[in-house]
Structure formats: C-alpha cells, structure tokens
Amino acid sequence: MLRGILGKKIGMTRVYRDNGVIESVTAIEAGPCTVVQVKTMPRDHYEAVQLGFGMSKRLTSPEKGHVKELGSFQHLREFREDTKEVKVGDKVDVNAFKAGDHVDITGISKGKGFAGVVKRHGFAGGPKTHGQSDRHRHPGAIGSTTTPGRVWKGLRMAGRMGGEQVTVRHLEVFQADPERNLLLIIGAVPGIRKGLLLIRKSKEKSGATASS
Q1: What are phi and psi of 180, to 5 degrees?
Q2: Where do runs of H (alpha helix) occur along 94-174?
Q3: 24 forms bridges with which residues in the sheet?
Q4: Counting Cβ atoms within 10 Å, is residue 93 exposed (0-12), middle (13-18) or buried (19+)?
Q5: Where do the structural domains in the chain lie, given as residue ranges?
Q6: What pTM did the predictor assign?
Q7: N- or C-end of the chain: fewer Cβ atoms within 10 A?
C-alpha cells in the first residue's frame, strides 16, 4: 500500500479526546488520488509513483496525452515508493491512514511579503538608549572590513518572507474519515486554505522502542 497521498487544506478547528482534553486539529481533504504513472528502476533509474489529485477545467495537449483517459487532474506529484504492487489507474484514499498514525506534511508556507530582519530572522535590533534613535530594528553591520571586503553570500538580511516549501514531521492523525475523504491532523500544517499538501507516513524514529 502507498505511504503517501495528496490533499487540500480546509482549515483548523478543535476536537475533544475521550478523556476530555481539547486538541487543535487541521482538517485536510485528502484524495481520492489516481496513480497516473509508475516509474521503475530499469526504465527511469529510480522508483516512484505519480499521483493525480483535484479536477482541472482544461488541460494542454501534452497533459491530455500524459493522463490519457484517467481523468482531468489539477495536480500531479511524485512519491518515492516501492512500485512492485502498484499499477496505473489504482486509487489512493484515506483508508491508507488510521488514528494514531504519524505523518510528514509538506506545503508552501504563507507569503508574508517584504519583512525586516527582526520579523524575518528574529534579530534583537539595536540599542534602545544612549543616543540610538533610529536603529531599533536595524540588522547592524553586514560586511567585513579589509578582508574579504564584501558581503558574504547567504547573509541573513531583510527580504521576502514565506512562500517557501516547508515540511512538518511526525504529526499525529486524530481521525481518518473515508466517507468524507477527510483527515484530522493534530497541530498546524504549512500553507494557506485550499493549498496543496503532500502527506506521507512518517518513518520510524531511530532508536525508538515498542511500548509494552
């Protein structure tokens, strides 16, 4: 069975555990997805499964040739999987998950626009007293003097914040509802509402032992 699925973020809400504890959960519309392509080691030099998700109003001619009669998909994404028991046309839904599973979720974080170093990187800013009236949120010195005499590449500075691929690992599945194609995940996941999410079952943590 495949370990991954595509989904769409719906939003957040709160639920109660059996012991009365309140949990904040993210609701995700997960699947159903269709296997569009199976990549194998002899032909493609790696193994992966390409899934299609969502409905697209129109496709280009190359896209139509790629998906053939499988459907009109808005999103196509690959998962590195063992392809021995997978074939084109197979369906993937939330039946692959159950309450208590742990998953890794990848999405595109919310774009925050242009931000300074205090907001973007958590800098402390400059001194607030002793004549410093205009350096409260400045980064300080950004360059070296004689050597190397330039600003180092990758230096943390002001710039566009967010809009980057983010993966949050080992989130717990609170509930899997196959009838509504719904996953409830404890905690927050990256991205905006209706944003695309890649959901994979987490690998076992190294050194973990089974509880008795």
Answers
A1: -110, 10
A2: 117-121
A3: 14
A4: middle
A5: 4-112+164-201, 113-161
A6: 0.81
A7: C
